[in-house]
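Structure request: SRPBCC domain-containing protein, Caldithrix abyssi.
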Amino acid sequence: MEFFQTAQVKSSEEELQKKLTVANLDKWCATIEEVYEVHDDNSGRAYTIWGDFLIKRQLIVGGVRFSLPECPNMMAWTLTTGYDPAPEDIVVHCTIARKDQDEDFVESLYDFVDDWKAGLEKDF
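Returned structure:
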């Protein structure tokens, strides 16, 4: 399943990679309640609305990718700019590797990308 949102924020690949680290994810997204352990810019642990997870970050073309390697749904999300569908904005794209999900969980994923949009538009 895929979930998209677009934050109307001008940025660059370099700025996304500099500002969006594991340590400050809870600043940008309310669904990530607390980052309580930071290994480095690319790895740490956080409490989320779904539970306690290891979070990994990768630098990618256009921005960053985060993943929850311990998540049974293989959740991952990217924040990118400079490419379609909105090259002037920041695109939030979240995926899970399961086709059929509980309605409440699906709704929480829509909330997740909405929270990213709100956080980026407020403070980025």
